Amino acid sequence: MSKVCPFVPTRDMVTSVAFYRALGFAVVHQDHTVAIMDHEGATILIQPHYVEDWASNWMAQLRVDDLDDWWKRTDGLSATYPSIMLKPPAMQPWGIRVGFLSDPAGVLWHVLEG
């Protein structure tokens, strides 16, 4: 079995770790160089490096079992993290229902069922 475990940029490790924990990711390991986080087998590595052009063009897709149930985790997030973007799940022109959100560093996530 192969897995892709992408490195995710951050402006602030504490803020990013808290954000991903609010979305249901668990901290597997954290030190000053990396935070390894897991969401039901989907692993990301948050690194304390930030380049605006890279972060604002970095995208990832998270597939979940129940999109509507998972999306409830975003309730109240914009009050805590005012810089994030949230677009609730909607059918896209390519025929898949997707919710979009950005993290505090500007990383764009596509969240869908499947």
From TrEMBL:
Signal peptide: none annotated. Residues 1-114 form the VOC domain. This is VOC family protein. It comes from Parerythrobacter lacustris.
